[in-house]
Amino acid sequence: MGNTAANKRVAPRKEVTPIHVSYMxxxxxxxxxxxxxxxxxxxxxxxxxxxKREDLIPTALRKNLTLDVxxxxxxxxxxDEMNLEISGVIKRTKLLGKKGFHIAVDYSEDAxxxxxxxxxxxxxxxxxxxxx
Length: 132
Known about the structure:
six-stranded antiparallel barrel; alpha+beta; 15% helix; 132 residues; globular
């Protein structure tokens, strides 16, 4: 008897060419959390973003070694290259030292599965956008 809800959320991740996210905003109070983030991995359940410390907007977050206070926050993001707004929930955060933080965002429950899989197919893999 496992936790089937947690198990079905696990999906293979795809490393993607970094996709620029101009901002991540809280859906609860519409405060901007971060700017100039990059999506570095994607799956049909969510996105993994790289956020530099200096791109965190609240000064209290910039001074912390953890972003765990954000876990559970509902957020929306703007993906510049695709001119797309995506909403989701912050599930995990991880300090990467001087590089900044990883923030894992699961798509909102109202995002249809076929839409998530189509988005994952559309995101370019590393090198796919480079001209030879």
